[in-house]
Design brief:
Chain lengths: 517, 297
């Protein structure tokens, strides 16, 4: 062997971790993200990539585990009052911010006020605070103080709502250090992090990487690695090549490379595959297409969708069967629902019963969606046309235009989805199928369903609430309010020397306990 | 430049889709939040007002705030990318020009021989293979199998080898083709025949007399090649994780980040104008006739 190749081989052995480059604690865990984060602070946080990075520096009252259970983090416990629409949170003691200052109730109040402040460009956390007493006054700028939040003592805080929001403890609201802005100025996020998490902000080279260092004073125990490095990798094939040569320890596989990864036996032992916390469904607006008013027609559409063929053919195996409207891994998921059948003969019979034998009498309709789902749209249109005689074809529109039209209830037939915002089935059932929800894009309504959802909104006990979700979901399924479609997968590759890191339906797991080699 | 400013402003506003919708993504039914954001970014003002405040800002060197990167001025988003794409393009062209010219000259003086055909074959291949295919193949061979070079990244000399190579190969092929064509034209001219008849050494005839004459049209094309290179850097930057302007341009258009997209287009326009100016100066330097013309007028 030539000397250069030997050196190259040795170098690559170090890079892949077979030969340790140094003590385990000096190693940095390298993962990929698709683009630069749009924000670096928890107040303006509003997108997925930024959330993945910030999750390591900031914490909320709770966090969702890979198995879907809820773990208490900054809030040790909470209770309600018989006579008030309020929660009392008991905060975890002994928690310090990255600055060294202790985490106390005043920081919770500070964060909530900062999110509601009028010029804060607040992100996704803002809607969660709307029902807190006094929120409207802070939002309009009338006052800076949030009346409904009372600091009882350093470790206790009361939050009062106009109507108790039972989900408040599990909302992903990250709390920040109330002293940081005064200390570091308005652009503090480019210098430090102000959280309680296991990692601290080190540097961000735009377009290249975001680097975090370990927080040795972390209340849950210091990380066993030196830090995290989120490499900005826009292209899926590049990410896989980097993983192959050891430039990445863990790859979040992008959809364009799903097939390649699933087909490659070399990756099989390193593959992580979980269902995404994102429900897929076919929406049918009864107001815009009269045949949809008949339940038999709605059911017939579902019966000509061959879901196993979709999973294998359309998704190359990168999908899971879904029999309901809540995805696996989201608390409130109903396991054991009967699989949705593929039965074209029954579908034809139902259509005939409904008065549309072989599609006669069915008006024209488009299967409308964006370019991302053009394959699904083509498949459905083809099946509906061939099996049922429905005069239909796929129609592809621009994304923002499509979302606007769906929100206005102007799209008759559309495959679409919804990503879970928080770990509770209400994010699906309450947002998408509740009668008056602005995101009820198919405008399906059921008074019984709404009544159960209203009840669930007041049910603090988790198990009881999940039971209500099951009942509501059963009503939705029995009425064919929508048609569930397979849930797409989240795929990841993890080097054998990486421990305690995985992908969950919601994204990356917590990296607090990661070890490398 | 003025035309570029107006056109890009109108073009970005004419795109379907709306930056506020993109910011809110699937939660866009929250009309109150949408209205608030629209006001904060000044998107609720009439187009003429928006345009005027944009131009006024430009005079001050203020490109505004990015829509995508919260609370971040556009100049900060661009700052780190600013020199990377021109650096890549410049490195590629400083490789492509000498190699291309040499290959083109060799093909021209050996016209219609086996060597000429061989060189032409390689040139056509270099021109025809799409740059992403070339990049993927080179990465697979040199980075993944042989592990001689990094797969991606930006910061060291080794990181730049593959990206520059992927940019230089098609450019060199194009330059070689042009050189061969211009040289063939020049070699046929009377003064070359005269020089040969006088007994001048062939190499001096070729390089000093013929090539210099071919350089003028070639220099003009070099400007165009540079412009094409700048746009090719988009693919290369995406594949090799390079934080350059090309990638930023595409990302910002998809994200409806109008201020960043407009700033990048304006920068490209400015670079392109500068390159053309430099080429004109070089041409005047090479060709005394142009200098004389300029002096006369």
């Amino acid at each position: 062997m030539q000397r250069r190749s030997v050196l190259g081989l040795f170098g690559s052995l170090i890079a892949t971790g077979v030969v340790p480059a140094g003590a385990a604690s000096s190693r940095v865990f390298r993962i990929n993200v698709v683009a630069d984060p749009a924000q670096m602070d928890p107040i303006t946080l509003s997108e997925i990539t930024a959330g993945r990075i910030l999750k390591n520096m900031y914490e909320g009252f709770t966090d969702v585990q890979p198995d879907g259970s809820v773990k208490r983090m900054l809030a040790e416990s909470w209770e309600t009052f018989p006579d008030r629409q309020a929660f009392r949170f008991h905060l975890h003691q002994g928690v310090k911010f990255h600055s060294g200052r202790p985490f106390t109730a005043k920081d919770v109040k500070y964060t909530l006020e900062a999110i509601l402040a009028p010029d804060s460009k607040a992100g996704l956390a803002a809607p969660y605070l709307d029902t807190i007493v006094g929120a409207a006054d802070v939002k309009s700028g009338k006052t800076k103080t949030l009346a409904g939040v009372t600091v009882v003592d350093d470790a206790t805080i009361d939050i009062t709502f106009t109507k108790l929001d039972v989900l408040f403890p599990i909302y992903p609201i990250y709390y920040m250090d109330s002293g940081t802005v005064a200390e570091q100025g308005p652009d503090w996020m480019s210098k430090v992090s102000a959280g309680t998490g296991p990692f601290v902000y080190k540097s961000w080279t735009r377009g290249v990487s975001v680097d975090l260092g370990a927080n040795p004073a972390y209340w849950g125990g210091a990380p066993k690695i030196a830090g995290l490095s989120f490499l900005i990798v826009p292209n899926g094939d590049t990410a896989l090549s980097q993983y192959d040569v050891g430039e990445l320890d863990f790859v979040d596989v992008y959809p364009e490379t799903f097939r390649r990864v699933l087909a490659n036996k070399r990756y099989a032992s390193q593959l992580i595959k979980v269902p995404r916390a994102q429900v897929s469904y076919l929406g049918m607006n009864q107001n815009l297409y009269t045949p949809f008013k008949d339940k038999r027609v709605r059911q017939a559409l579902s019966l000509v969708i061959d879901r196993p063929a979709m999973i294998k053919g359309l998704y190359g195996g990168a999908a899971f069967p879904a029999n309901g409207f809540v995805t696996a891994g989201v608390p409130g998921y109903q396991a054991g629902l009967p699989p949705l059948k593929y039965d074209p003969a029954l579908a034809k019979a139902l259509m005939k019963q409904a008065g549309y034998p072989n599609g006669k009498g069915l008006p024209q309709i488009d299967v409308t969606t964006t370019a991302t789902f053009k394959d699904e749209a083509a498949y459905f249109a083809d099946q509906f046309q061939r099996q049922l005689g429905m005069p239909t074809k796929p129609k592809i529109v621009e994304r923002a235009t499509h979302i606007k039209a769906m929100n206005a209830g102007q799209v008759a037939l559309f495959p679409w989805g919804w990503t879970a915002d928080y770990p509770d089935a209400m994010t699906f059932l309450g947002e998408m199928w509740y009668g008056s929800s602005p995101y009820n894009r198919s405008r399906w309504e059921s008074a019984d369903f709404d009544r159960i959802i209203d009840q669930a909104r007041s049910t603090v006990n988790d198990e009881q609430r999940y039971a209500l979700y099951h009942r509501a979901e059963d009503i939705l399924l029995a009425d064919w309010g929508g048609i569930p479609l397979p849930t797409t997968a989240v795929l990841g590759l993890r080097k054998p020397y990486v421990k305690n890191a995985t992908l969950t339906p919601f994204g990356f797991s917590s990296f607090q306990d990661v070890t490398l080699g | 430049m003025a035309v570029a400013i107006v056109v890009t402003f109108l073009a970005t506003r004419a795109l379907p889709g709306d930056p506020i919708q993109v910011m809110l993504s699937d939660h866009s039914a929250d009309l109150q939040l949408a209205a608030r954001l629209r006001a904060e970014y000044g998107l609720n003002r009439p187009l003429v007002v928006q345009f005027r405040s944009y131009v006024v800002g430009l005079m001050r060197g203020d490109f505004g705030l990015s829509f995508r990167y919260v609370n971040t001025p556009v100049t900060q988003v661009l700052r780190e990318s600013l020199l990377i794409s021109p650096l890549l393009a410049f490195s590629a062209i400083s490789l492509a020009l000498p190699i291309g010219v040499f290959a083109g000259v060799q093909a021209a003086i050996r016209r219609n021989s086996a060597a000429d055909a061989g060189i032409m074959l390689i040139l056509i291949a270099g021109l025809s293979i799409p740059n992403f295919a070339l990049a993927t193949f080179l990465v697979y061979l040199l980075s993944v199998r042989l592990e001689l070079l990094p797969v991606a990244g930006w910061g060291t000399f080794r990181d730049a080898v593959l990206p520059v190579a992927v940019l230089a190969i098609p450019s060199a092929a194009y330059v070689a083709r042009l050189t061969r064509t211009f040289m063939l034209e020049v070699l046929d001219r009377d003064f070359v025949r005269t020089a040969r008849a006088k007994g001048m050494r062939p190499r001096i005839v070729v390089y000093r007399h013929a090539l210099l004459n071919a350089l003028v049209p070639l220099s003009t094309s070099a400007g165009i090649i540079f412009g094409g290179l700048l746009s090719n850097t988009v693919v290369v930057e995406t594949l090799f994780n390079i934080p350059g302007l090309g990638r930023l341009a595409i990302d910002s258009i998809f994200a409806r980040d109008y201020p960043v997209a407009m700033a990048v287009v304006l920068l490209f326009t400015a670079f392109y104008a500068l390159i053309n100016l430099a080429v004109d100066v070089i041409c005047a330097g090479i060709d005394p006739r142009i200098r004389a013309n300029l002096a006369a007028s």
